[in-house]
Amino acid sequence: MNSPSGHLFDGLDKAQIKKLEGIAKIMHVEKGQLIFKEGDEALSVYVLEEGAVELTTFVEKDFELPISILRNRGDMFGSSALLAPHVYSLSARCAEKGIILRFESNTLKRVMSEDHSLGCKIMANLATYFFERLRETRQELKIHFKTLLMSTRS
Amino acid sequence: MNSPSGHLFDGLDKAQIKKLEGIAKIMHVEKGQLIFKEGDEALSVYVLEEGAVELTTFVEKDFELPISILRNRGDMFGSSALLAPHVYSLSARCAEKGIILRFESNTLKRVMSEDHSLGCKIMANLATYFFERLRETRQELKIHFKTLLMSTRS
């Protein structure tokens, strides 16, 4: 398990951050509350303000694999909402009582197209975010192959 | 093994494509030729023009795991060159004689910063590309966990 550091707001100037704050819906969440489920239509991007959120994936119907726990203010999740096919690839559940900012993807996309510089910075943040997650996930895959190799040799 | 469909040029207009073509170095490559090795400093992004390129990762010193084979004109690889820490996370080797376009990342970044719209489109293409690879890699990881679960049950 790792703590991703994806920040939607990275590199934005004050006016741009204000714009995003203006469209954020503030959610007060309870421990155990499900924010979204893997496979659901992805309609919103989320940013952690307070608390902790666990991301998991279904390996089987009755077995969920933990992917990461977000604990830092500004941690982004649900970013699948900004890219086709707009389906959540993980589930997100609150591990603690806290506060989450919700950005409806249609509203966010409108703001991004109106302010080209803002849109560009968010796309660059997304690219960096997915790239870092990809490197981590490939690393995990490697560890599994190594274990597999060792077990076939013993 | 899958065939990624990352296209550096997606969404660009004719003038922008011309700009990129203007900075591309054309490489005539032979079967078996190594383009870059995992862990190398990532200085260029590549686009397949003709032929086929295999991407692999080292699991151990003497064991390379195939990640994908690129066969389509326009397939991008080495895109780590555009993002920190600028290190190739895979190795790329020609599976066939062919032609590859090489874009030095410093030159490409300069063009991207001069033409903001071009830079923005390339960042969006990168975000989509890494997102798709991430989904595939997570899927593979899941399959390994499923196999592991089944083996512990039997």
Q: What is the subunit organization of this protein? A: homodimer
The biggest beta sheet of chain A is recorded as:
4 strands, antiparallel
Q: Tell me the Rg of chain A in angstroms.
A: 17 Å
Considering residues with a beta carbon less than 8 A from a beta carbon on another chain, report the largest interface and each chain's count.
Answer: A-B, 35 and 35 residues
Mean pLDDT of chain A: 91
Tally of alpha and pi helices of chain A: 3
Could you name the ranges of chain A where pLDDT drops below 50 across 5 or more consecutive residues? none
What is the overall shape of chain A?
globular
Number of strands of chain A: 8
Overall structural class of chain A, as computed from helix and strand content, comes to: alpha+beta
Strand content of chain A: 25-35%
Alpha-carbon distance between the two ends of chain A = 28 Å
Order of helices and strands of chain A: HEEEEEEEEHH
Strand arrangement within the widest β-sheet of chain A reads 1-8-3-6
Helix residue percentage of chain A: 25-40%
